[in-house]
Model the fold of this input.
Amino acid sequence: MDTLARLGHEYFQAHYAADPFLATVYGVGGFEAEVPDPSRAAAQAHRAKLAALAAELESADRTDPISYAILSRLLRDEQHAIDTAADEVAVSASTAGAFAQVISSVPQTTGTAQTYRARLTKLGGFFDGLLRRYLDAKDDGRFPTALGVRQAIAQVDGYLATPIERDPFRRDGVADVIEEGVRPALRRYRTGLAEQLLPVGRDDEHVGLCHVPGGTEGYPGLVKAFTTTDLTPEEIHQIGLDLVADLRDEFAERGGRALGTSDVAEILHRLRDDPTLRFATPGEIVDTVTDALRRAEAALPDWFERYDIAPCVVREMDPTEAENAVLGYYVPPAGDGSRPGIHMINTYRPELRPRFEYETLAFHESVPGHHLQIAVGQSRDDLPTFRRFASFHAHAEGWGLYTERLCDEMGLYTSELSRLGMVSFDAWRACRLVVDTGMHHFGWSRARAIAYMRENSALSEVNITNEVDRYIAWPAQALAYMIGRLRIQQLRERARGAGLDVRAFHHEVLAHGSLPLDTLDELIPA
Done:
């Protein structure tokens, strides 16, 4: 094994050993019995390992420049994330919060009954350690938001009120571990949140990372890591403002076709508040998403190479997770084939969920979006393992957003109303550029961020608040979607000028695994 291959393997093992829950999400075997160590000491030990690998990489052979660039970027960005430590003030009930991440990963654990029991046995210690980490941050004057703490308390209360027979962690032979280990730890965790963190929580006027010691210096580095560009927060903020303005013209055009009005304020009002545009039952949501997935699968051969990949299925979120969660997300297939790709959808209170959003959501999360991209990457046995399971948010989320418009080219939307949903989703991601930088760099309040999204997107009130709370807890991640999409669009125009057909272009974007945007840029013919 040459030096680069060895370093890639060592990084892969260290990365998932530091976060075994993430290994479960990405279908990486070998960590099924483990939980993360959330302590500061563990974070610093992991950082030292990454720094040592990065130092050795400097002198490694660069005959595989793509693998070299990917590994170099992963090592650099992961060290910066540890230094910024934004996660230790990210108490939240959103999908960026710790409990939601546990709920979305641990029940998906593959492996044996023994390894699953072993993981649950350690889960109580994880929550004890997590609380200790939050209290260490508190001692340094680094506080979570009071709203995030209150929501996290309510989320844990909802879980603890769930009968043991419906516990999301329940499998045969583990009820005793849940009752004697997991639930007592979560009661201790809940007490610590309520008694020690809530009294010092930041108010809604100070939700951004810029209000946390070290946050002003750390946020620009997170921006670079999540977008894999050198764009500054100021530049991204302006890109968002310009895109939002342009999309208002498209709202007017498509609103005239779908709703009979070109008045943007009226269009947004109708999309957000018209009860006839809502679902009636969870089953209607499931059917809409499943039908969109199957139509997309049938249309793939005209737009993509043929790939032998894992299947994708649709499942509903557990109610414990769903109340404060986003519309949906994707769980990749297990690397050993024991679990398909899963599009998890939020069916909580269907009467609040717009019909026009869920086709676009299905294309983004499943096919031809995240499932196709991630499953293709995992299937490439010729790539180093660390590349098959790596994920750069700008490439992954940029691809998902790119496919939303691509599916209009593919003729997959069933109505003008659904196409209007596509525009609404574009506006949503453009708003992210404005409100994420607004809160974390310019110091916007939560209310100002919510108001901006309400004025410029058709998201429902519940989705707007859930989204803003996610951005608060996960600084800069939401920037990856639109920045990545814009770059992929630019590269497609370049490829068209070079005579590259769309199937070949899509193969170049997908077949190398997840990439930093500058590395992807080098692969597309100029």
Residues 113-139 form the longest helix (27 residues). The mean pLDDT is 95. The longest strand covers residues 312-316.
